[in-house]
Design goal:
- The structure is a single chain.
- With about 325 residues, the chain is of the alpha+beta class.
- It contains 11 helices and 11 strands.
- A hairpin with a 6-residue loop joins strand 5 and strand 6.
- Helix 2 packs across helix 3, helix 4 crosses helix 6 and helix 10 packs across helix 11.
- The relative contact order is 0.07.
- The radius of gyration is 25 Å and the shape is globular.
- It has 4 domains: about 70 residues, Orthogonal Bundle (Arc Repressor Mutant, subunit A), CATH 1.10.10.10; about 55 residues, no CATH class; about 90 residues, SH3 type barrels (Roll); about 80 residues, 2-Layer Sandwich (Alpha-Beta Plaits).
- Strands 6-5-4-3-7 form a 5-stranded antiparallel beta sheet, with helices on one face.
- InterPro entries: CBASS_pafABC_assoc_protein (IPR051534), WCX_dom (IPR057727), WYL_dom (IPR026881).
Length: about 325
């Protein structure tokens, strides 16, 4: 057996053991980019190496293979590429201000490294740091909003309930922070992070609370039932960034010049965007969203290589600072 096939077999064993219902031939084919005949041969090889593997037929008459004896899998240890990927995820989460994810990923990393012999652990950590530096992940500067880790932890606990929260919050029109009782629905990460919640003292509409403006948070014992029709992903898609306004929600159309079209095609400006190639080599991008100010911030990076066709308000905002001196595209 080749080294690559041995690695694939160990990966397949890990998949079979980690998935509650086991794995199917089709899932193996998709995971390893092979046809189903090759996937069947891989499962047969897995049975030879791990005789304890068993199978059952699910409700859709598909055979699912499950490895329950995982003692041999623990002998693999931790691969360098896995530690590098974990360190990169921690660094990205730090840059985005996702403190809860940073704490969880660091805890996972520490537990995994603790299972290694000390000499090997130190060697892998040094290698991971060097590779991250080479990839440009380490020590990359950039602006981010400061948010209290204590507030984030409390908000996270309330979301898991879900439980009502008491927060001291200073809105844009408030002279000082005031107490509010809210029902949290989710968090949107962006230039600024927003907590999506209902203010129980007002109507049933969902509102956005800037996390950096929450002075203090206190979880209650009051459980509440979320609206079953609420979809955080769909809600987030109504915005270009993290800011949302029903009054601003409209069709957005940008035309990129032929010089910028190839670069623009590499971007996902919005989850539900449409792209149309133009005869002159340019590119038309359209979607529906709110957040005109955040759009203007982004469009400034493209200089004169992008033109706003819709909406009129955004076109007028951008027209004032379209800069011909911008020669490097995002």
């Amino acid at each position: 057996m080749s080294f690559q096939k041995a690695q694939d077999l160990l990966k397949l064993a890990g998949m079979s053991a980690s998935r509650h219902g086991g794995i199917t031939v089709k899932e193996v084919a998709e995971a390893f980019s092979v046809n189903e005949r090759t996937a069947q041969r891989m499962i047969a090889a897995l049975k030879d190496v791990f005789p304890s593997i068993s199978h059952q037929t699910d409700n859709e008459r598909r055979r699912r293979w499950k490895l329950r004896d995982t003692s041999m899998l623990g002998m693999q240890g931790l691969y360098r590429r896995e530690l590098v990927a974990l360190e990169a995820s921690i660094t990205r989460a730090e840059r985005e201000g996702a403190d809860m994810e940073v704490e969880a990923l660091r805890s996972l990393r520490d537990r995994l490294v603790a299972t290694l012999p000390s000499a090997q652990a130190r060697s892998m950590e040094v290698d991971a740091e060097a590779i991250l530096e080479a990839k440009g992940y380490a020590c990359r500067p950039g602006p981010k909003v400061k948010i209290s880790p204590a507030v984030l932890n409390i908000v996270s606990a309330a979301l898991r309930g879900p439980f009502r929260l008491i927060i001291r919050y200073q809105g844009a029109q408030d002279a000082k922070p005031r107490k509010r009782l809210i029902e949290p629905y989710g968090i949107l990460l962006g230039t600024r992070h927003y907590l999506i919640a209902r203010d129980t003292a007002k109507d049933a509409n969902l509102r956005r609370f800037r996390l950096d403006r929450i002075e203090k948070a206190e979880i209650t014992n009051d459980w509440f039932e979320k609206d079953r029709d609420f979809d955080l992903e769909a809600y987030a898609a109504r915005s270009f960034g993290s800011f949302h306004s029903d009054d601003e929600f409209s069709r957005v159309v940008w035309r990129f010049s032929p010089a910028a079209a190839a670069t623009a095609r590499e971007f996902e400006f919005h989850p539900k965007q449409d792209m149309i190639d133009l005869e002159d080599g340019g590119l038309l991008v359209s979607f529906e969203a709110s957040g005109l100010v955040e759009m203007a911030w982004h469009l400034a990076k493209w200089g004169r290589e992008v033109e706003v066709l819709e909406p009129r308000e955004l076109r007028e905002t951008v027209a004032g600072y379209r800069n011909a001196s911008v020669h490097v595209l995002p």
